[in-house]
Amino acid sequence: MSATLWQIPVSHFSEKARWALERKGIEHERRSPPPPSHIPIALWLTRGGCHTFPVLVLDGRAIGDSAAIIAALEEYRPDPPLYPDDPADRRRALEIEAFFDAELGPYARALIFHDLRDSPGGYADFAAPMLPPPVRETRVGRAAGGALARTYTQVRFRVAGQEAAEEARAKVLAALDRLEAEIAAGDGTHLVGGRFSVADLAAAALFGPIVQPPEGPHVGSAPPPAFEEFRATIADRPGYRWVAETFARERGDARRP
């Protein structure tokens, strides 16, 4: 078996795929071309089927989208399972994953990208880990990488306006409300079926950029001040604590090479 994950290291959607691969114990290579080169690479790998990362190439088959990657891994290596055995629980777990994919993932990303615009170091610090070493080690290279990242995120994710930032904050808060409702409906530790599943993995991974637990991916720069102020308003909430506890209990160290 051969497996290669094409990823963006700081991406929470890539983190979903990495977490699933490690949970399944599947050895794999990781490739991390810098954005925006990942768009034509994803289109090439998937023959136009997907325009972004993560993309998993599993025994020659290219699979785009983190949810589809987890589904393929579940079929390829059923143990340990990420899908509940009970059909009703499975439907619920997949619905929870789909909700956080659509209603949290894009907005958690957009919020941080917006707040980076007014942060000291901002996009230059954020982009530096994704640049080739000879580039990121020069002042001019870091500045150019930051300018490219700023322009790319504004065009790609439309994060330039204050209205977009307010929408992102509202969506993150709504997702946190939903998470806390699911925690209350579950056993307090797992969202569905009394054990770790794709529902827990998706919710925790996609809240990762907000909570930034020590077991999570390295984000590449200090959080922007505006973002830290927002995070301080939710740090005592049960859902926030649940994300940190789930990473500590289930993830291992996502920062190891």
Residue ranges: pLDDT <50 for 5 or more in a row? Answer: none
How does the helix and strand content classify structurally?
A: mainly alpha
Succession of helices and strands: EHEHEEHHHHHHHHHH
Tally of helical runs: 12
Q: Which architecture of the largest domain would the CATH scheme give at its second level?
A: Up-down Bundle
Q: What does the radius of gyration come to?
A: 18 Å
Mean pLDDT: 88
Q: What's the structural blueprint in terms of helices and strands?
A:
Blueprint: E1 3-6, H1 12-23, E2 29-31, H2 38-45, E3 55-58, E4 61-64, H3 66-76, H4 87-103, H5 105-116, H6 122-127, H7 133-136, H8 139-157, H9 162-185, H10 198-211, H11 225-232, H12 238-251
Helix pairs in contact: 1-3, 1-10, 4-10, 5-8, 5-9, 5-10, 9-12, 10-12
Structural summary, described in words:
The protein is mainly alpha-helical. The chain has two domains: 3-76, Glutaredoxin; 87-251, Glutathione S-transferase Yfyf (Class Pi), Chain A, domain 2, CATH 1.20.1050. It contains twelve helices and four strands, in the order βαβαββαααααααααα. It has helices at 12-23, 38-45, 66-76, 87-103, 105-116, 122-127, 133-136, 139-157, 162-185, 198-211, 225-232, 238-251, and strands at residues 3-6, 29-31, 55-58, 61-64. Strands 2-1-3-4 form a four-stranded mixed sheet, with helices on both faces. α4 runs parallel beside α10, α5 runs parallel beside α10 and α9 packs across α12. The two termini are 21 Å apart.
